[in-house]
Amino acid sequence: MMGGAEPQSVSQHDLEQLAMGLSDDPALLARVESSPDLKARLAQIRDDNALLSELAMTQGGQAVREFDEIPGYELLGEIHRGGQGVVYRARQRSADRVVAVKTLLQGSFATEGQRHRFEREVKLAARLQHPGIVTLHESGRTATGLNFIVMEFVEGETVDRWSKRMREAGRTRDIVTLFATMCDAIRYAHQRGVIHRDLKPGNVLVDAKGQPHVLDFGIAKALNDDDDELVGMTRTGEFVGTLAYAAPEQVSGDPDLVDIRIDVYAIGVMLYEALTGERPIKTVGSLSSIVARISTELPLAASKVSDEIDADLNTIVMTALAKLPRERYQSADDLRDDLVRWLGHRAIAARSHDFWYVARKGLWRHRVPATIAGVFLFMIVGFLAVTSVLAFRLERENRGLEQTVSAIGQALARVDQETSNVQVSDLEEFLAGTNEALGRWLKDRPDIAASLRNSLGLAYLDMEKFADAETQLRQAVELRKSLRPPAEAAIAESEHNLGRVLWRMERFDEAAEVYKSALKLRMELYGPENEDVVRTTHHLAQVLQDLGRPQQAVEMWERTVEARRKLLGPQSPDVANSMLGLATCLQLMGRLHEAQGKLEAALRIVETSYGADSLPVGRVKFRLGSVLIDLDRLSEAETMLNDTRRINALKNSGTLDMARTLHELGRLELMRGTNLTLAETYTRDARSMRERWGNPRRSLAESDLQLGRIAAAQGDLEAAERKIRSGIALLDQASVAEVHCERGFALTWLAEVLWRREKYADAEDCARNANAILAEFRDANDEQFVSNEQILAKALAMRRANGR
Q: For burial by CB atoms within 10 Å, which of 359, 471, 571, 683 has the most?
């Protein structure tokens, strides 16, 4: 016990804590000593515990013998023995799978308090269904009184051992990636009202794929729980946890100070240890001295312990270890987000107060030609150099070029810390300032203004600032059309880029029009065998697919694949990209084996071109996983999607890519049908990510439709109907075509739910409308089509039976 106020009363729990040596509160001891009744009860508990311990010792392998009485399980050996429990490796006979079984160390001789804690762990663990948290399968008590928990068995090593290997191999990024994934699991627990309170390396296992699994919620704390058994477990003055990983407020003895930020602190300690091989605070000496160091001693900066840790990563670690909770990351999600930012070379939130730092990181993030903002800055520098020379030569002949130099010089000055007194907080502010300079200084040079506005539009597109991107690109198109003679190649370039923006905004009709205009210009300029022509054809095929014109889209995709093979060679990554688009369209049409073949060929190309852990590989594996779900090859699909998820985290491909992957993992679990809670968790997490990032309504519709299907599978038909109708409404808002396979699927699922709710007329209408749509995309043997036909047949039979 670390101090605290005198309890209002002395409970059985308090006495058991004193008897087991887990409490030394002087106020509590004084209260007991002053009461003969309490002294007698304490002595009796101590005598009972001693007797039970002696019996347990003399019984030898009693726990093992009792274990054999758990119906349906075969003991394979002991895994771990801790202070409270024993964990065994066992085989579940019914499922023929290896599981972990945890029992109380004292077996059937456990005290009531020990049993209470054990049962409490079961209640909390049952709330948590997440791939990063060890799953609880079942629990119970044997005829002889042995409490047990059956859990998922994880073959792996503790996170400290795994991190030591990574650290010695110089794989700092792998360590950070794993901790970001771990934070996601802890965030999930926090969102469901559970604080772990004992996060430490021994409670995190890393499997062969490098995925973390958090276990042992034995002393977890429930938030906002009405169950007194859960809330009342921790008394004032009682410390729970492991000192080396405990936050200052955790050792204070005041349970009111304990919240989710103690888990953030513990993750910070583990991360410090994983990166440096040292603990931030030494936990040697007397208990009082250790508590004092935890509370007041500032740890040595992680970057001073290891040269592998840069300033940003050091800031992340030390922020997680802040003594005051308010100065720490406020959630595991916040810590995860900064770890992901570090992996992507982006500005971290913990240093967001440093304006120049954020500006530099923004520019570094958008630094290479493959990144549009990088191209933009490169162009500015090039323009500055060229126009400076021209201005020098033609000073008396063309004063306009001086204005160009001035405009670009002012834009660059905004990111020059040495010459500017303007504070730049990020790349977006820089671009806004450049836009202002262009409007002021380049009125007389529409040719240069158009080029720079085109680049500004691409920069905004890269940042997913779609409205700003549209404004810049429309201005670029108009400026280029105003030139005499019109710059047709440049007009086509800006129209193509505008089409990209409109597609991202899900304004497919408008996107199709500008793509067609760009394609017409490029065909007239270059003929069909030109990469710019093929690129626009590729994009137009995607738009036609989204407009519900799959046959036209497939024909365009096929032309694109063949043209790129001819222009670039059969092993070009661009060929693989077009094959990916073609496969996606084939999947929508139900031509699954064709889609699988295209994707496997594309995967071979991108793995050779980019490497096994590249983003293009992740995107192809995502689509292949989706197709394999449709083919009911769920184990193979799971492998593909987990690889995609790992690559997304490793390469920081963005929250929306991760959301898409989680959604498909949810669909996989829905199809599997054995863990609908996990299916719902994946889907809700994906929807939250999409909503947080302002994702278009079409993706949110996809999430709601899947949540409706999950609710139907769970038997909650009212919720299922509500969610599916919400998804259909979002499709309407997203202007999805009336004849589109997504709408056909949605109506099919709604028809099934309505029929089960005995709304037969509505179900019949939905089924008929669904098949009218699906007939454009699928053949009569398609599963969705057949489902609707069955409803229509039942409706017809019902009408005949009623004489109608």
A: 683
Instruction: For residues 390 and 430, state if they share a domain.
Output: yes
Provide the residue range defining the domain that includes 115: 59-153
User: Cα dihedral sign for 423, 426, 427, 433?
Assistant: negative
Give the closest residue to 182 by CA, choosing from 138, 219, 213: 213
Q: How far apart are CA 406 and CA 448, in angstroms?
A: 13
Distance, CA of 260 to CA of 264 (rounded, Å): 7
Q: What is the CATH number of the domain that holds 593?
A: 1.25.40.10
The string of DSSP letters for 30-71 reads HHHHT-HHHHHHHHHHHHHHHHHHHHHHHTSSHHHHHHTTST
Distance (Å, whole) CA 756 – CA 709:
13
Residue 789, CA atoms < 13 Å, CB-side half-sphere = 10
- Regarding whether 443 and 363 lie in a shared domain, the answer is yes
Tell me the CB-side half-sphere exposure of residue 733, using CA atoms within 13 A: 13
Any idea what DSSP says for residue 133? B
Q: 623 in helix, strand or coil?
A: helix
Assign residue 616 a region: left if phi > 0, alpha if psi is -120 to 50, beta otherwise? alpha
Amino acid at 284: V
Give the CA distances from residue 70 to residues 103, 147, 230, 463, in Å, rounded to whole numbers and listed in that order. 11, 10, 26, 57
More confident residue, 785 or 619: 619
Residues 468, 357: one domain? yes
Does one domain contain both 259 and 348? Answer: yes
Same domain, 113 and 86: yes
Alpha helices in 548-696 (DSSP H): 550-568, 573-588, 592-610, 615-630, 634-651, 655-672, 676-692
Residues 243 and 387 reside in one and the same domain: no
Which residue from 99, 192, 111 is spatially nearest to 149, judged by alpha carbons?
Answer: 99
Convert the pLDDT of each residue in 722-763 to its tens digit.
999 999 999 888 766 676 778 889 999 999 999 999 999 999
Distance between CA 159 and CA 708 in Å, rounded? Answer: 38
Q: Kindly give the pairing relationship between strand 85-92 and strand 147-152.
A: unpaired
What's the pLDDT score for residue 265? 96
Can you list the alpha helix ranges (DSSP code H) found in 366-445?
372-393, 400-413, 427-441
Q: Does residue 3 form part of some domain?
A: no
**pLDDT, tens digit, 9 for 90 and up, residues 684-700:** 988 988 887 655 688 89
Measured in whole angstroms, the distance separating CA 390 from the mean position of its chain's CA atoms is: 51
In a domain, 516, yes or no: yes
Q: What is the pTM of this model?
A: 0.53
Cis peptide leading into residue 485 (ω within 30°)? yes
CA-CA distance, 216 to 136, in Å (whole number)? 11
Residue 562 and residue 360: Cα distance in Å, rounded?
Answer: 43
Please check whether residue 553 is in contact with residue 544, taking contact to mean a CB–CB distance below 8 angstroms: yes
Residues 411, 455, single domain; the answer is yes
User: Does the pLDDT at position 475 exceed 70?
Assistant: yes
Instruction: Please give the Cα distance from 110 to 148 (Å, whole number).
Output: 12
- pLDDT band for 87, please (50, 70, 90 cuts): confident
Pairing of strands 147-152, 136-141: antiparallel
Rounded CA separation 646/642 (Å) = 6
Phi-psi region of 347 (alpha: psi -120 to 50; beta: other; left: phi over 0): beta
Question: Which amino acid, residue 770?
Answer: A
Residue type at 49 in one-letter notation = N
DSSP type of residue 484: S
Domain count, the chain: 7
Across 155-210, the runs of DSSP E, i.e. the strands, are 156-158, 194-195, 204-207
Q: Identify the bridge partners of residue 101 per DSSP, sorted by sequence position.
A: 88, 150
Residue 213 located in a structural domain: no
Q: Based on the domain organization, do 188 and 336 belong to the same domain?
A: yes
Largest separation between any pair of C-alpha atoms in the chain: 108
